[in-house]
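Quick one: co-fold with magnesium ion.
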Amino acid sequence: MKIGILGGGQLAQMLAQAGAPLGMEFMFLCPSEEACAAPLGQHLCNDFDDATALDRLRRWADVATFEFENVPASVIEILAAHTRVYPPARALAVAQDRLREKQTFDSLEIPTPAYTAVDSQEQLSQAVGRLGLPAVLKTRTQGYDGKGQTVLKQQADLLSAWERLGGVPLILEAFVPFERELSIIAVRSAKGETRCYCLSENHHRDGILRLALSRCGDPLQDMAERYVQRLLQNLDYVGTLALELFQTEHGLLANEIAPRVHNSGHWSIEGAACSQFENHLRAVSGLPLGDTSLVQPAAMVNLIGRLPDLGALTAVPGAFPHIYGKSERAGRKLGHVTLTADGPAIDAEFQKRLASLLRLTGEMQLATTMERLSAA
Ligand SMILES: Nc1ncnc2c1ncn2[C@@H]1O[C@H](COP(=O)(O)OP(=O)(O)OP(=O)(O)O)[C@@H](O)[C@H]1O
Ligand SMILES: [Mg+2]
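Sure, here it is.
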């Protein structure tokens, strides 16, 4: 089976690693010469809308997929006219626009933070009047890793926020004082078979995911599964999808979807029977889905900006580093480490080892929290 992937970053790299044992071959279309997936297949180093490259990709591939959501809709149309492309174009269109995404949640009765579209400075002040402060102003398209958004705390912030983000379509959201951030990753086959992974508890700093913890048996699992199932069905989805959620005292609120494999599901490589990457490939290539159940509790720590010493990382028992092969740069995701537990539960020993990994990556606050939990 030949898989064409739009994008050649770490998600494409981990897809290709998961596909190798299944005998799959890969071609990546990615304009970056440094595409870290490139050694695992053929690399077309062209822009995403390069007609010749798209033609080559669709002639070669049995099925095409993508590793990020900002692929222009026109590119998917060109590919879809000649070959199968999964996930479907509509899922991509919904995920690309935060307004359309929230409206889709509404139509499926999936609760969201209060929101309103903002297209002018006047609408911004009206929207703040309605939703109150604090609130989060976001660009409707193109945001990632917390980019393209800002928190408004007081009236005086409106002008600077408008100057920074205004001029493109925006959305204002009520600021949610969440108890936890969670995500659920699910997969659906073309035949409509679905499977969910257990919830992931996610910790961000400066808008970037730092730590994700598998939460098997969480009381909110059923509610999250109900919401994500509605999305999968409504979008006639094929592949892996992530739904990001806020846990509040009133239950779960949907933040956004990612129509692809997701950073908060990287622990599934070691933690689940079949990873989110293998299941995405199984879904898009028409194979039966694999078992999503947790083999052992797992956590994932992102390696951001600078790589810690590999000797120190590998000295932590149960730690599995994944180094993507990208050059160091502030804020850049360079790799991740999965930590697996020895037994069926997250215990003090696991928390202690997780704290040492967090210290190695410079996440001092999270490390202290884990140390406290392990001492308790
Ligand atoms: N309405 C909100 N209330 C409180 N916090 C929020 C809100 N919206 C976003 N955040 C915080 O900012 C983070 C990034 O926001 P969001 O997921 O909308 O953007 P993103 O740039 O697409 O992020 P990513 O690429 O990491 O998924 C969230 O994970 C959450 O921690
Ligand atoms: Mg997000």
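If it helps, The mean pLDDT is 97.
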